[in-house]
Amino acid sequence: MARNRSNILRFASSACSAAFIVMAFGAPSYAQDVAPEAGTDINDIVVTATRRAEPLQKVPIAISVVGGDLLRSENRAGLQSISAIVPSLNFRNTASAKDQALFIRGLGTVSTSPGVEPTVSTVIDGVVLARQGQASMDLMDIDHIEVLRGPQGTLFGKNASVGAVNIVTRAPGDAFHGFADIGYYTGGDEWRLRAGVSGPLAGDKVAFSLTGAYSHFNGNVTNVFNNKTVNGFRNAGVRGKLQFTPSEDLKITLIGDYADAKSTTPQGVVSSTTLVAYPTNVVTNFPAFASALAPVVPRADNRAINSNYSTFAKDKNRGISLQADWSLGDYTVTSITAWRGWKNDQAQDQDRLPAATTAFPQQHDIGNLDFDQYSQELRLASPKGQFIDYQVGLFFFQGDDKERYQRITTLATGASFLGVANYSVKNKSYAGFGEANLHFTDQFRATLGARLTRDKLRYSFVRTSTSPTAVAGIQTAFTAGGNTSDTGFSGRAGLQYDLAPSAMAYFTYGRGYKGPAYNVAFSMLPQDTMALKPETSNSYEVGIKSRFLDNMLRVNIAGFLDKFKNYQVNFFDTFNGSPVTRLVNAGRVSTRGVELDVDFQPTRALTLSAGGAYTKARVDNFICPAGANASCQINGRPLPYAPRWKGNVRASYELPVSDALSIRLTTDANAQSKVQYSINQTPTTEQSAFGIWNASLGLIGKDRWELNLVVKNITDKSYSTNLGTFGQGVVRFVPRDDRRYVGANFHLSY
């Protein structure tokens, strides 16, 4: 097996080296006779960012679009993987999907509390997800993904105050079609299998699609305690659609999906046993912990743990939705009724050691989450082409969350203490919304939109402990409960003007709103029982979307300024000698910058693209939470997960060999400046600047099959997707491409 993997590595590296030579110096001379003609239009991209299908270049919103075929061919199966190719999007990786988060323009919500909603909304086929962990599943049967930057509260809901990720899956086809994918990747024995069928069931009245997927990855971190490989996953899922068209005026789509996932991500890999305080820069070393961790040696690129507790996270996501689109003359009524359920079970090793010592007791956790959401949306859309076209609608949402979290602390003497927290959160949201476009002339238009939301939030919390006093990692018994409500406004107003038939300029003002919240978590403290204030924002964006050179070149640029009040964020603190996280209203924060997207297709064979973002996301005025022990001197400091610079470039060249066969050479690279992962600004949670270079070589049988050889992280660069502090040091979270790996995937259509 080792020899086979070495051969695969050498072959893929050689193939991709040849690809780079071809791309740098042109196609071989024998292929010039069949080279594609020069000069071709860049394909029009259709998006649903306005809840209507419209060309990307006509929508006055900064949008990044990633196609499903690109995700498949490059082994990008989840939202984390697309953050590398969308400069304004960042992803927080953790040991469990429950704690993961998305960031747009340097802003997002980091919290384990079920009493707070995300700042970045995730939407799948028109259904808004209330918890970010629900979007942790492998992406199946994707048509495309739209990353909408800036407040999207008017049409996508209150938890879209900095943006939305709109996932659109493929619709059933009117002709029978099937496909199958298989992929294998080294560096942890990763397998990916996917298959699907689509087509008519009853003439042109009923169509269906059914897709199934399975993936397995052993991992890329070694547990020296039992010599097992961890940081892997096993995912399986299925998605089905039934589309009924009883008449030309009515289309009904029933969608169901189920996904089952298990990961073995550890609670971080120890990268340092040194802590540096902020702002004093006082250095504290923990040699005793380093000794207890042996033979693991903490370092920045460490990929080993020494743990006697098997950590895992299991997720079950399932849902069903019914969408009806009914044409009433020139008007369209859309109804989306949906239910989604999510179960998350996790086991985590908080002490990260193979045994309890006198100085370091063991802390082993088990958490269980059960969440259900119900939503109903009703929209009326007027016809296009009038002086005013509009959409108006009503929205209802209800979320029910029940959780249980326990921690067992074991001392070196063998004495054990148990802490258990049972808590629940119920929230309801009612909204009315509308957005209109006013066409003053063929070139000059305006947009006005508003959403009024009523939120109701209630929680209960009970923590018990077998110790009457606080012990390591377990606070004393505590009971709390409360409820709150609020009414908030979000909206959008903008102007757009066609500078030329192929260029449009726009200015947009957006008002963002995210409802009140509670910091409901295992370590909840008496000072955390008050409801957090709603998060509000004012956003300003100016942009130009343009095409040049007979539509061969597309250039979109946007400048933005977002100012937030009562920003809801996790603040890391200590209480009774133990680290805790507290969800707080941070006060005022802001983000400003410039984003650029460029696509150039000088020939049918060659496609070049680049994207970049300059983002200055800062704490303007931090309000120190009551009873805080950590430093609050962070005004003017960067927000977490907000690199100042981030960008990517891509080149693809398709070389015809015959009428039925072609070769595609692709290379891409992404890079970013240093990034701080903690709002507390500790120097040891800062990831230095890094870049990743990938490439692939594809053989394409026209309309039938495709074989791609892939090399990831060619320069073998190690980096961390998250850095966090604990009592005795720093841990890193290891990404899939922390080291170079190669693979191949095969796609068959029939």
List the helices and strands and how they pair.
Layout: H1 2-25, E1 46-47, E2 54-55, E3 62-67, H2 68-73, H3 79-82, E4 89-92, E5 101-104, E6 120-124, E7 127-129, E8 142-149, H4 153-156, E9 163-169, E10 177-185, E11 190-202, E12 206-217, E13 221-223, E14 228-230, E15 233-247, E16 250-263, E17 269-272, E18 274-276, E19 283-285, H5 287-293, E20 304-305, E21 312-328, E22 331-349, E23 362-381, E24 388-410, E25 416-439, E26 444-465, E27 478-500, E28 503-514, E29 535-548, E30 553-565, E31 568-575, E32 578-585, E33 587-600, E34 606-622, E35 645-656, E36 661-672, E37 675-676, E38 686-687, E39 690-701, E40 705-712, E41 722-726, E42 729-733, E43 741-749
Parallel strand pairs: 6-9, 13-20
Antiparallel strand pairs: 1-2, 3-8, 4-5, 6-7, 8-9, 10-11, 10-43, 11-12, 12-15, 13-14, 15-16, 16-21, 17-42, 18-19, 21-22, 22-23, 23-24, 24-25, 25-26, 26-27, 27-28, 28-29, 29-30, 30-33, 31-32, 33-34, 34-35, 35-36, 36-39, 37-38, 39-40, 40-43, 41-42
Describe this structure in words.
By secondary structure, the protein is mainly beta. It is 6% helix and 56% strand. The protein has five helices and 43 strands. The strands form nine sheets. The chain has a 22-stranded antiparallel beta barrel. The two termini are 33 Å apart. Mean pLDDT is 90; it is low at 1-40.
What is the count of helical runs? 5
Question: What is the global morphology?
Answer: globular
Percent helix, as a range, is under 10%
What is the mean predicted local confidence, pLDDT? 90
DSSP strand (E) fraction? over 45%
Largest sheet: 22 strands, antiparallel, barrel
Rg, rounded, reads 26 Å
